[in-house]
Amino acid sequence: MATDKVHINLVFIGHVDHGKSTSVGRLLFDSGNIDEQTMRKLKEKAQELGKGGFEFAFVMDNLKEERERGVTIDLAHKKFESPKYFFTIIDAPGHRDFVKNMITGASQADAGVLSVAANDGVMAQTKEHVFLSRTLGVSQLIVSVNKMDMKDYAEDAFNKVKEQVTALIKTVGYNPEQVQFVPISALQGDNVAKKSDKMAWYKGPTLLEALDNLTPPEKPTNLPFRLPIQDVYNITGIGVVPVGRVETGIVKIGDKIIAVPGREGKGVPGEVKSIEMHHEQYKQAGPGDNIGFNIRGFGKKDIARGDVLGHTDNPPTVASEFTAQMVVLNHPTVVTVGYTPVFHIHTAQVACQILAIEKKLNPATGEVLAENPDFIKNGDAAIVKFKPVTPMVIETQKEIPQLSRFAIRDSGTTVAAGMCISLVKKE
């Protein structure tokens, strides 16, 4: 999709079955981003599977096999144009996928659409998703109050949910004044891309118009160059080709760079010979670009996923310890000093041990509830000091926020999420 429109990464979040996928499907179809023919096929497929009305959800969810058969619909990252912007939609079907997507760096969302069903209101996952969005740096929010058809499109049903959600988002630090609330029925197509005639009481934007009211993110081109490596390929005749997404700064052919921590934990220096994106050669790359490049000086064994590239005159920071502000989301018991879970930071996965729990905070206001508590548990926010078990690159929220965020996972679930607020550089 060649476009000169400004690009925004958009994540759809919310409780399971509150209509995220149907909303996305409806949005794409009603805005002309999916053609009739594709939709007809999905409709037939839905009816075949005894799921009439699920065709919109299928646009996001059930195209796995169609995709394998070569239908060009990219599942997790759907491209979409509104009159004003060019969006990449990150669908978050499950909690885990959402967290994984949001943290692996492939998709730092600039804005989120929170789906809340009018007949259910705020549920457990609604709360967690809102919490996570905030901690993971999703700065703008649109709340779509879905399934209005199940409430006869009544204004008081909308207001009730709006009140609930307003209270919730305030607690994590979103300003409700800056959040757009849109009553919709994704299934019926009310107020998604087309104005509904069933809610005369509502004077605000449709969901599509609300998206165009978003503010585009500033490109962090002026920050130091950082590229977390996602994969390393060894291509015959070319050599070692690291692949990843530029998070911050600019990289040009001929630049002297370093991969940190690298195999020995000392960093591996090299020089950029070529930069490739979508099988085309480029002279430079910037934030958001997914690139592969060839670097003079890199051997196959020198670098791996989780290493971060930077310029030699401003190398990525390896921390011997760091302090983080975090939120405990889903831990079976309590979190105490000595606990050593796996951190997912940009593309790295490193075990880190808790050295100290310095403060327990009110997740609503950030005020300190307790100094040096013995433990923290689900729902608690805290300031915690960690020590990585092996060398690891992390930056502070203040200096390079894109490399400060992390998720903590333990036996397959996301236990906590947070961001680094200060660190001690490894000597």
Provide a descriptive summary of the structure in words.
With 427 residues, the chain is an alpha+beta fold. It folds into three domains: 6-212, Rossmann fold (3-Layer(aba) Sandwich); 227-311, Elongation Factor Tu (Ef-tu), domain 3; 319-425, Elongation Factor Tu (Ef-tu), domain 3 (Beta Barrel), CATH 2.40.30. Helix content is 19%, strand content 34%. It has eight helices and 22 strands. The strands form four sheets. The chain has a six-stranded mixed beta sheet, sandwiched between helices. β11 and β12 (280-282) form a beta hairpin. The longest helix has 17 residues, at 155-171. The N and C termini lie far apart (47 Å). The model is unreliable at 62-76 (pLDDT under 50).
Task: Tell me the number of structural domains.
Answer: 3
Order of helices and strands: EHHHHEEHEHEHEHEEEEEEEEEEEEEEEE
Low-confidence stretches: 62-76
Shape: globular
Q: How many strands in all?
A: 22
- Cα distance, first to last residue? 47 Å
Oligomeric state of shown chains: single chain
CATH fold assignment of the largest domain: Rossmann fold
What attributes does this structure have?
single chain; about 425 residues; alpha+beta; Rossmann fold; Elongation Factor Tu (Ef-tu), domain 3; six-stranded mixed beta sheet; 22 strands
